[in-house]
From TrEMBL:
<dbReference type="Pfam" id="PF00857">
    <property type="entry name" value="Isochorismatase"/>
</dbReference>
<feature type="domain" description="Isochorismatase-like">
    <location>
        <begin position="11"/>
        <end position="154"/>
    </location>
</feature>
<keyword id="KW-0378">Hydrolase</keyword>
<dbReference type="GO" id="GO:0008908">
    <property type="term" value="F:isochorismatase activity"/>
</dbReference>
<dbReference type="InterPro" id="IPR000868">
    <property type="entry name" value="Isochorismatase-like_dom"/>
</dbReference>
<dbReference type="InterPro" id="IPR050993">
    <property type="entry name" value="Isochorismatase_domain"/>
</dbReference>
<dbReference type="InterPro" id="IPR036380">
    <property type="entry name" value="Isochorismatase-like_sf"/>
</dbReference>
<protein>
    <submittedName>
        <fullName>Putative isochorismatase</fullName>
        <ecNumber>3.3.2.1</ecNumber>
    </submittedName>
</protein>
């Protein structure tokens, strides 16, 4: 599939945690884009999964990105798929849309794990962050080399909608304006 379809997509939100985000370069923009993706996924009733890396040390998911109705899965592994509960939760055939932090650690390793497992992965570049722009850029390039589609928040949202006639078009359009 070259474009996303809301009927066959899941959103995976990786490690937007309270103690991690202040260190992320351009974190306000990354959080804002993740918020738009999450809200669009909710409007469209897409499966939504959150991970938290070592929440005792890094805190929980940001309140703004409140993890309802998705399930928060705790992990200690950088590749979320190496945590059996996470791997079992996102098992299936849907395309996986990924937003998260840090691009060069947990996002990268999880995306490579998903690709290795035969999944189609769309990494939302403007909803992915790292402490440094160099790490983010290198991670996005590496993920693309291995088969991840690198997309933007607006690309994902408009592909999920498919048409200006979609019943949720006006509500979801507010997320990108």
């Amino acid at each position: 599939m070259l474009t996303l379809n809301s009927a066959s997509s899941d959103l995976l939100v990786i490690d937007f945690q309270t103690r991690l985000m202040p260190a992320i370069h351009d974190s306000d923009a990354v959080i804002s884009n993740a918020f738009s993706l999450i809200e669009a996924a909710r409007y469209l009733n897409l499966p939504l999964t959150y991970t938290e890396q070592n929440p005792e040390k890094l805190g929980h998911t940001l309140t703004k990105l409140a993890p309802y109705p998705g399930e928060v899965l705790h992990k200690m592994t950088f590749d979320a798929l190496r945590t059996p509960k996470v791997a079992g939760h996102i098992d299936g055939t849907n395309a996986i849309v990924v937003a998260g932090c840090e691009a060069h650690v947990c996002v990268l390793q999880t995306v490579l794990g998903l690709i290795d497992a035969g999944r189609q992965v769309f990494v939302v570049a403007d909803a992915v962050g790292s402490r440094t722009p160099q790490n983010r850029r290198a991670a996005l390039e590496r993920m693309a080399r291995h088969g991840a589609e690198i997309v933007t928040t607006e690309m994902v949202i408009f592909e999920w909608l498919g048409s200006a006639e979609h019943p949720s078009f006006r509500d979801i359009l507010k997320l990108v304006k």
